[in-house]
Amino acid sequence: MFSNFRIRVSAVRALGVANVMRVLWYRVRLKYGVHPVQRLRVPGTPRGEFFLPPTNLTSLTPSRAWRGRGRYFGWFQPALTGTPAWHANAFTGGTARRTDAPWWTIPDFDPDIGDIKTVWEASRFDWAVASASRAKSGDGASLQQLNDWINDWCAANPPYRGANWKCGQEASIRAMHLATAALLLDAIDSPTPALLSVLELHCARIAPTTGYAVGQDNNHGTSEAAALVIGGSWLQRHGVAGGQSFEARGRALLANRAARLIESDGSFSQYSLNYHRLMLETLSLTEVWRRRLDLPPFDPVVSERAAAATRWLHTMVDPVTGDAPNLGANDGAHLLPLTDADYRDYRPAVHLAAALFLDRTAYPALAEAHAHLQWLGVPEPSLALEPPASTLFDNGGYGVLIARDAMALLRYPRFRFRPGHTDALHVDLRVHHEIVLRDGGSYSYNAGHDWAAYFGGARGQNSVQFDDHEQMPKVGRFLWGAWLSTTSRSAIAHDGDAQRLTASYVDWKGARHERQIALSEGKLDVVDDVSGFRTRAVLRWRLHPGTWVLDGSTVTNGRIRITVTADVPVVRHELVRGWESRFYFQKTELPVLEVEIERAGTVRTQVQWTA
Predict the structure, then answer these.
(1) Backbone angles phi, psi at 456, to 5 degrees
(2) 307-344: b (≥16 Cβ within 10 Å) or e
(3) DSSP annotation string for 387-454
């Protein structure tokens, strides 16, 4: 149906010609050495005391992260004998060689280190937040570690040289973590010259490349806007030239990005649950900062969209475990690790945002959620946020059905922004606080073609694959072509004790898939009508890890029973080995039920459990 040329043209049009030109203009100017960021004044390397002992101590329980062991992407904890190796891949030991080269001369994908995010992770400075929390508790050794590590990082990463200066968003996350440490250590009103110096370096690096961030239409824009607001207002408060300009640019960008990237129903442009948290934590920290410095309110659109985004994430999160569907791309980002809550526990982020933007308490019985607010000086609201309910987030393409003991999520294509995964009509199912039918996740952005195709493509989703092709053709490392659109979508209907939702699409090769899900107490029914394919259609159900037994058309683990039938001959029922990535750069095995047919027809899946 589509030629390669038409696919590429359609992808450019979908991205937006203005965005494509922004990114192209950015790259051309860097290539020929005429970008303003390449003409930044390069001062001496900041050194000295970045943080002084806090004026008051706290009785709150501090974080144990980054004390004797690292913490990469929320799960990998290698032993530390000193400061982290700032230019090394902590997983493989591979080390970047061009540590003193201007950042714009360093390739995006350095073969010496593999995935550059394994180098960037320690340089995001989340350890600064953990060390600051311990210092706030009276731990002098942690305060010394905090200063030693920042000094060591500055010496190993001269201004604007090396891979750790390459990305404006990475610089922004680093700046926001320094600001969070300052909030904890009472350093906002009396920062040291060294701290102001390193902050000014970061704002100067971020500001000239915000056009590139805008062109991405993702969390680069929200992160960089927030860092400029926070850093600029802080610098201005202490008489540093340029601070007012940084803050003004950040405020305008923050309002622009909130209005464009966050839909009125709370859906975010990246179609990713973890990037949604990153965006929401970014807005939360910025609001905390605004209140702490008594700055003027932001444009009303910021708080309005933040409130909607809070309700969106609250609906997705399990109130008992804090886990949520492993939806969309995930690079391991977590902006506010203020407690030792698990990386995949999204409740503290929701609780903070609910207090700030809804004036509600989301999880009144959760100690970590309360501590999250206390560390940042946010009062606990007196009113409770209403429990999640079945909701259609149609702007983003999410249908959530909630029964007493279960939640089912139907993902359908509403791609106003660049899709990260081909997950049309994917279904996630949570039963008794356990995710039974699971999304594959991301694993790594630089893991090679085969793994990228697996996790981002059809094999990583609970949907139907036609003729072994993807739902959309790949036209770049991070770009799909021929973006899908939903051809039909029902409202959430109530039929007795069941809730029903239906959606459909036709892909770039003419294959059609309509899926109806019906959730009731103790049961999920899924009906897939498929047609338009040539030789075969494969339905996949990616199952909770464990022992599953296949008997004819039924598979069970003793607690969950899944039966798949069809009105046409089923040529294969098979349990195969699959993979999932619940944390960045980690993959683990899980069983996958594959059901294959060779003719157009209707396939019915019934999932049953004890209510």
Answers:
(1) -85, -15
(2) bbbbbbbbbbbbeebbbbbbbbbbbbbbbbbbbbbebb
(3) PP--EEETTTTEEEEEETTEEEEEE--B-SS--SS--TT-EEEEETTEEEE---B---TTS-HHHHHH
Instruction: Judge residue 550's burial from the number of C-beta atoms within 10 Å of its C-beta, 0-12 exposed, 13-18 middle, 19 or more buried.
Output: middle
Please give the backbone phi and psi of residue 214, each rounded to the nearest 5 degrees, phi first: -60, -40
Q: Are 391 and 315 in contact (CB under 8 A)?
A: yes
DSSP state of 504: E
- Per the listing, tokens 């101590």 go with 57
Q: Please, where are the H alpha helices in 107-159? A: 117-120, 126-136, 140-156
Return the SS3 of 463. coil
CA angle 459, 461, 467 (to 5 degrees): 45
Tokens of 550: 């296949």
How far is 526 from 425, CA to CA, in rounded Å?
A: 11
Q: What does the angle CA 123 – CA 269 – CA 405 come to, to the nearest 5 degrees?
A: 95
3-state secondary structure 234-278: HHHHCCCCCHHHHHHHHHHHHHHHHHHHECCCCCECCCCHHHHHH
| Look-up of token digits 């000014």 | 200
CA pair distance 489, 561, nearest whole angstrom: 28
| pTM for the model | 0.97
Six-digit token string for 380: 């606990």
- Beta-carbon contacts of 163 under 8 Å, excluding residues fewer than 6 positions away, are 87, 96, 98, 99, 103, 106, 110, 113, 116, 119, 120
Q: Residue 344 — φ and ψ, nearest 5°? A: -90, 10
Residue 565 CA to residue 361 CA, distance in Å, equals: 45
Structure tokens at 511: 């294959």
* 295 phi and psi angles, rounded to 5 deg: -85, 160
Which two three-digit tokens encode residue 271? 């179609």
CA distance 169 to 210: 9
Residue 527 in tokens: 């009906």
Q: Which of 331, 237, 222 is nearest to 285 (CA)?
A: 222
The 10 Å Cβ neighbour count of residue 186 is 15
Q: Please, are residues 337 and 126 in contact by the beta-carbon 8 Å criterion?
A: yes
Give the pLDDT means over successive 10-residue stretches in the chain (611 positions): 76 91 95 96 92 96 96 96 94 88 88 87 98 98 98 97 96 98 97 97 98 97 98 97 97 98 98 98 98 98 98 98 96 95 97 98 94 97 97 98 96 96 98 97 91 96 98 91 97 94 97 98 97 98 98 97 98 98 97 98 97 72
